[in-house]
Amino acid sequence: MTTFAVIGTNFITERFLTAAKECPAFQLGTVYSRSLERARTFADRWGASDVCDSLDALCSSPSVEAVYVASPNVLHAPQAIQLLRAGKHVLCEKPVAPSAAALEKMILAAKEGGALLLEAMRPAFAPSVRVIRENMERLGPIRRIVIPYCQYSSRYDKFKAGIRENAFDPALCNGALMDIGVYCVNLMILLAGRPKSVLASGYFLEDSIDAYGSVIADYDGMSAQLMYSKINNNVSQCEIEGEKGSLVFGPMPVPRTAKIHWNNGEEEILDLGVGQHDMRYELECFLAFLNDPSQALPYQHNSHLALQVMDEIRHQVGISFERRKEHTKP
């Protein structure tokens, strides 16, 4: 049994704790929040025995062995580094860091503290992606991969009404690329590795975040097309196109259905084996890696490759984690 603390009292943490019920080795001990009242309310709901509003206290707590970090994106790296140096194992929500350089500092902190660091990148651990990857070679030479993920933000209507919430503040490392596109880039890396080059474009909301974007990634003999957005939905699925047929799957970010369309007209349905609560897979791997953090190295490598690609996309599109003119007031 491993005793966890959670940082964050949002719906993502609730979804994580729901999935954690399927992992007998998980035990929730502490809830951290900047508001003790909010922490106590959340702890009562989920059966945690302790609450905390100080990261220093969390780091020094002998009862906390591991921490699930689901704070705002901008806090992931500094919080994780402090926890890792204190010897706390960290499962950090996506995006694990704002940049590849920041992730390198986090990995170094994990080594210094003898602790495990893992990005909670759902498709990296889901059985569906393994099945899709195993069937790619059956398609013959792959010529194109298409990965769309567009999700209308529940807060966008308020934005259009003039109400600016944190989700639309770029200084918190928010935006379509960091919140949605991160899944597209990571899935591309999982399926095809790092591309030779990328060509990116994007659109910004006035005085706010990048709202949508697209990327064309070049590989030897193949290309990948990524489309992501926070201001519209899409109904199209992902597709891997080979010379013998195409594999269509979805939804993002964790595919649950997949079908191969062969060139001769036949179709084949693949069993992706995904359960109801797909966040359990990242937690199961995290728990399995605790005795040997080196098992996380391939996953850290993939996260690092994805962030390198995202760094280049941000450079091309002009995404900056700075407040725009309407956010300059304290």
Describe this protein's structure.
- The chain is an alpha/beta fold.
- It folds into two domains: 2-121, NAD(P)-binding Rossmann-like Domain (Rossmann fold, 3-Layer(aba) Sandwich); 124-279 and 308-327, Dihydrodipicolinate Reductase, domain 2 (2-Layer Sandwich).
- It is built from eleven helices and 14 strands.
- The chain has helices at 11-20, 36-46, 55-60, 76-85, 100-113, 122-125, 127-136, 156-160, 176-192, 280-289, 297-317; strands spanning 2-7, 26-32, 50-52, 66-69, 89-93, 117-120, 142-150, 197-204, 210-219, 222-229, 238-242, 245-250, 257-262, 267-270.
- An eight-stranded mixed sheet has the order 8-9-10-7-11-12-13-14, covered by helices on one side. A six-stranded parallel sheet has the order 3-2-1-4-5-6, with helices on both faces.
- Helix 9 (176-192) crosses helix 11.
- It is globular.
Rg, Å, rounded: 20 Å
Please give the share of residues in helix.
Answer: 25-40%
Helix/strand/pairing category = alpha/beta
H-E order: EHEHEHEHEHEHHEHHEEEEEEEHH
Count the beta strands: 14
- Could you say how many structural domains there are in total? 2
**CATH homologous superfamily assignment of the largest domain:** Dihydrodipicolinate Reductase, domain 2
What are the defining features of this structure?
36% helix; Rossmann fold; alpha/beta; disordered C terminus; six-stranded parallel sheet; eight-stranded mixed sheet; 330 residues; 11 helices; Dihydrodipicolinate Reductase, domain 2
